[in-house]
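ok here's the first one, seq then struct tokens
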Amino acid sequence: MASAAALATSLAHFRPALSLPSFSFRHTSSTSSSSSTSSSSSSSISFIFLASATNKRIRKCSSSCSPPPPFLPRALHDSNTTQENRDEQQQQQQQEEHFSVLASVRSRYNDIVIVDTPKSRLLLLDSTHNIHSMHNKGQKWTGAYWDEFATLPAIIPQGPIAILGLGGGTAAHLMLDLWPSLKLEGWDIDEILIDKAREYLGLSELEKCNKDGGVLCVNVGDALSPSVMVPGGYAGIVVDLFSDGKVLPQLQEAATWLELNEKLMTHGRIMVNCGGTHAEAAKAGGVASSNDSSWIQNSTIKALCKAFPKNLSWKRMTEGEGENFLALTGPFPDLNMWSASVPGQLSLNIQHWRPCELE
């Protein structure tokens, strides 16, 4: 079982890249374990989520520290502002949520942490401790790119769909909920991660054939290997492949996408989580842009454009949704027909897709 200090250090660097409030962590347990073995059961260590409107990254606090006060301009420290300060602090205390670490283990490929809160269960991976899977308890949709994956079946032929980079199975959960007769094939290279997802994230339930015939077949192995194929081809392929917080380098090569395209049936499509522009902007010594041409900075989309000229679409999630870029292969879809085939907010989000047009 991981020690309290190790878990606190691990979680202190967790960065919510999606539509979540920002948090500080305060360790409230006085117990710890010196065992170096991996934790596979619920930890007795407890923490508190402290929502902070002034900090968009997780900060580590010692067990004796108190929540940081909200930012106030020096010139406004009058009696009215003091009352506002008290009100904000009271609201902050009301937002405190106890949570527990269900698993903290290191595999060959990942540092794996699974966190349970009253509202959701989260999978954090690798040194970035970004969220790689989310399962909300009070609502189905995540408000992030996994929801977009669930819209893919509406614009592809009937047939099996591959999920390359299964993780904790968020996309599979949403797709089978919306389209219960789907046949999904999930691939992930990390067997320990898959075991933890079965134990804590409901993945094993998806592996049972439901009443509509839908099912998820889980495969452990390299998602880009030649063995990832089915007779007749996939109707769709979802690609969500990251390592240490970065898109796999193979996805920045046009040849990779041409190989994946060969695994599709006629009229099949690929939908891709391309990450953001921040890494590319950092390499260039600049700042990531949020305008309509910012997709050009994304290395994965560049490779896709080379592989599928005039047959690629893109969209960018909002800041609250993580700002990830998504790409879709094939002819530009009829957005109105696509929107009409999916419910609620998903329908509105589809209208944000744009064709990739390089002059």
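and now the second one, same deal
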Amino acid sequence: MIFARNPTIATPFVAPLFTLLLSVVSVTAENHVSRVGDIPEIGLGTWLSDRKKVAHAVEYALDSGYNHIDAALIYRNEDQTGKGIALAGVNREDIWVTSKLWNEHHRPDQVEAAITKSISDLGVDYLDLYLMHWPVAFVPGEGTKIDEETSIFDTWRAMEDLVRANLTRTIGISNFAKKDVEDILDMCNICPYAHEFETHPYLQQQDFVDFHKEVGIKVIAYSPLANTNPTYHSGLKPILQDSFWKYMADKKEATVPQVVLAWGLQRGTVVIPKSVHEQYIKENLEALDIKLTEDDMKAIAEQDKKTRMNDPGKSWGVKLFADLDDPTDLDENAKGKEL
């Protein structure tokens, strides 16, 4: 069993359900020295960032005070994200870089090749965090055909080896249901450092966020600005036009995105807003300066719509988020695996 050795990465905790995991929440790659001990609380997201614009966005963000970049192989822009990191001229040990293992690379013999490609494309020697992007394995080379022979446990064991090989300082998960998380905690030797999942004012999932705090796993909130993503079609009014949030922004003399991000930060989640626009990149960082009162937080809690924006489960024939708010709604006749 491998124990966490860097107290800036993992602090021992007492969790009633997982007392046997006290010191194994994460482990760092021993050969990499980093001046960024813990994951920075705000980062630049790169999902759906235009390949022609993402390099400048990353460079500008790093030049403007960001020290956290969130990437993934499936975003198909990691080479340009890496170009932006190089253009910024920052020292590797001064930034946090996250990437993700795509579904078709879950077979244990493919995991190392996948992270190696991401590391190469990003132009870094190692990652700070490598996430299993979804708890779903695809058969390599066969599109979204589900690989019934490869479990998340098989994949996790291979990911643990990435830490031992000093390819990443920590590992984690993304888009898992609560039971998925518990199942990984029951078997891990090197346990998840972080869980990246969708959470924002319209899908707050406060109980799920609190659960992660109890077991010592960081929460990274993707799509922290809810339905500002142009690919989302939830039927809800865009949060930028929501009268409640416009009122909160006026009250704080800030923009709606700044206040929404400040809420995410204040509830203890890491937020990774995506933008390729200099103005918005800079404004998003200023959310760190906004403080919400206890009454503000209570009022925001009442705005929860329990509406999920990102759910590919139906197209994959898989019921995702089974024990969470707004799970995948498979057709009655659809054959699907519950995750």
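notes on #2: The CA atoms of residues 306 and 325 lie 6 Å apart. Confidence is low (pLDDT under 50) at residues 1-27.
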